[in-house]
């Protein structure tokens, strides 16, 4: 397929290249009739403006780099959609990449984004302050972190969730149903300050309701190491109510529990972070601590636009988590 060029439009309309350029870019003096003719011809030929040439003239590409850990993860798919939708409404396109929870891949993608002369980046960071993340700051590329923060990069504004309220409501619900021991599977916390904060919030809220000795906490890894052995270990200590700090662990556990013949909502009660669509479609529906992902995505994009479009110094924002009880939480036996 050959792209229609400005020369093709000029030839078909019987005008010059400079005339077509002025007509399509609203520059210089040109009659209404000629402008209308050029626009009509461009439309008929299916002419698409060359964004590279426009970028050279304006120093803006209206392209934003968006980096998420795994687009297959429904949570990050929803997050990317919310960000992309908000940016599109403001006239920006997104170049989406995935880090696969790998710092090397993350940095490689960031450097590739820079080669495309992006207007800025919205990133779900992996790990700590990397060379590529530092490079974005050093050359003053507008950047916003979403969902996660990096401890040693306080200069980058963040939009994420505050886990405290949702966890408190979830634990209060379990306690009111007669549970006196709770297991918390925190996910791959080693390189995730966000998951570390969730575990801390669980311990703080749970200690007051259940006592330190009745809280059972284990972590997993980004490699999705089976949670079944962790669940078995906790159940051996009398735990039948579980909260998952990382939704992909919950998905894996639900599948494993089904094979074990355990009925969720009866034999075992379960709550997960992230209100994934699949959780609403399962039987029973899975109780969740919602991060309000669409709010996070939209706010992150708006924060980015405030920096790029309005030149504002953006501050970080937190979205309150919301507990949504469903059929996966039953009564203690």
TrEMBL record:
Span of domain HTH lacI-type: 4-58
Keywords: DNA-binding, Repressor, Transcription, Transcription regulation
Listed GO MF terms: DNA-binding transcription factor activity; transcription cis-regulatory region binding
CDD domains: HTH_LacI
Superkingdom, taxonomy of origin: Bacteria
Protein name: HTH lacI-type domain-containing protein
Signal peptide: none
Entries under PROSITE patterns matching the protein: HTH_LACI_2
InterPro entries cross-referenced by the UniProt entry: HTH_LacI (IPR000843), LacI/GalR-like_sensor (IPR046335), Lambda_DNA-bd_dom_sf (IPR010982), Peripla_BP_I (IPR028082)
UniProt organism field: Scardovia wiggsiae F0424
Keyword DNA-binding: yes
SMART domains for this protein: HTH_LACI (SM00354)
